[in-house]
């Protein structure tokens, strides 16, 4: 692999900052005052998945947590801390689990090979596979099966959010948290809302 000159990113940054100031003279003054993001997004670390770019959002609009295969783990203090801050301090009421087709973490879990340390993380996805074995076994096409697993994983992570102490305490306080299950499709550039695809009522997700 050839070496990349990372200075080009710094050069781009200078041009971008100058352009932002030319259009909005107080742009950075407003940013430094604090953040009021509209939603918390739990996405995958895949370099091709850029929620802000795909969804057309500006700085400060999304509070984002990313990990391998957008997993919500009850032992992940990093995510739990992010969620608690989002819900309790930033007063965020919309949480998006944002998966994508062609996810390497999903495939690695499905292939069930030995990968080292990451196997401990992939165990979360293997639980999803076990819970939905009959559904997955009924799909013969490999690509369709993996796409289905991506969707099932997103929906399972929604359920994991519901089981977290942060979610339960928020509901007990009378706060209405809205959970959204989205999947990004590389082949079309479109984001699919699984609630609409599977006709899931808002009260369920």
UniProtKB/TrEMBL annotation:
Classification via PROSITE patterns: PROK_CO2_ANHYDRASE_1, PROK_CO2_ANHYDRASE_2
EC numbers: 4.2.1.1
Alphabetically ordered keywords of this record: Lyase, Metal-binding, Zinc
Co-factor requirement: Zn(2+)
CDD domains the record matches: beta_CA_cladeA
InterPro entries: Carbonic_anhydrase, Carbonic_anhydrase_CS, Carbonic_anhydrase_sf
UniProt catalytic activity: hydrogencarbonate + H(+) = CO2 + H2O
Pfam families: Pro_CA (PF00484)
Taxonomic superkingdom: Bacteria
Role noted for this protein: Reversible hydration of carbon dioxide.
PANTHER family documented for this protein: CARBONIC ANHYDRASE
Homology family: Belongs to the beta-class carbonic anhydrase family.
Protein name: Carbonic anhydrase
Species of the source: Shivajiella indica
